[in-house]
Design a protein that fits this description.
This protein is mainly beta. It has 3 helices and 17 strands. The strands form 6 sheets. Strands 3-4-5-14-9-12 form a 6-stranded antiparallel beta sheet. It has a 3-stranded antiparallel beta sheet with strand order 11-10-13, with no helix packed on it. Strand 6 and strand 7 form a beta hairpin. It is globular and about 55 Å long. It starts with 8 loop residues before the first strand and ends in a 6-residue tail after the last strand. Bound molecules: 6-phosphogluconic acid and nickel (II) ion. The site of nickel (II) ion has 5 residues, from loops.
């Protein structure tokens, strides 16, 4: 069956993508990744903030198709650690992806499957970050406004969250004396 061409519309200010399917992630969904376990508990005792949303264009998850979506990471920190996405490898490991930043300031942490190689790129309006095949990826909002980026990837790539759940990422992004710093993750497990 011939798939019909279609438009979606992306709002550069809000990150809304219409028509699209939205998923939401709250602090409770990513709490285990944060360094300061006591701070996470203290925040969650009071509220469960929305950390990020992803809005996917409706494309069949089949070879040959290109999936695309926007991600909106809200500004915030737990202690001195900036809000971030869960992060993942693609189930089809050898599939690349592009993140095009529309608004805000961020960092894109990428690691090789064994975690021996780690790269952190800056994300800013106009940056088109290439995530090569096999690199795990997590994005971090280091600014005071939402970080909004548009992603394009192979529709049959799939998401492997289990690996990152076990290992975390080799690097963390923190605020120290008003500066954004990248440090080794003391909790990183190979
Ligand atoms: C993807 C993209 C991207 C990512 C979101 C949320 O493969 O779909 O990398 O859309 O899913 O930015 O990040 P998490 O999927 O890690 O929660
Ligand atoms: Ni991805």
């Amino acid at each position: 069956k011939l798939f019909r061409p279609f438009n979606v519309v992306v709002d550069f200010e809000t990150g809304d993508l219409t028509p699209g399917k939205k998923i939401t992630r709250y602090l409770s969904d990513i709490q285990h990744f944060f360094l300061d376990k006591e701070k996470v508990k203290a925040v969650l005792a009071k509220e469960n903030p929305l950390v990020y949303e992803v809005i996917y264009a409706e494309v069949p998850e089949e070879a040959g198709h290109l999936a695309h979506c926007t991600t909106i990471i809200y500004p915030g920190k737990v202690g001195n650690e900036f809000f971030f996405t869960k992060g993942h490898l693609h189930e089809k490991l050898e599939t690349a992806e592009i993140y095009f930043t529309l608004k805000g300031q961020g960092r894109l942490i990428m690691a090789s499957p064994d975690g021996e190689e780690c790269e952190v790129l800056e994300m800013f309006p106009g940056s088109a970050s290439y995530i090569p095949p096999c690199w795990s990826h997590r994005s971090v909002n280091v600014g005071g406004e939402p970080l909004i980026f548009y992603c394009i990837f192979f529709a049959d790539a799939g998401h492997d969250y289990a690996t990152i759940d076990k290992t975390g990422f080799p690097k963390v992004v923190l605020e120290r004396n008003g500066e954004v710093v990248v440090e080794n993750n003391p909790n990183w497990k190979k």
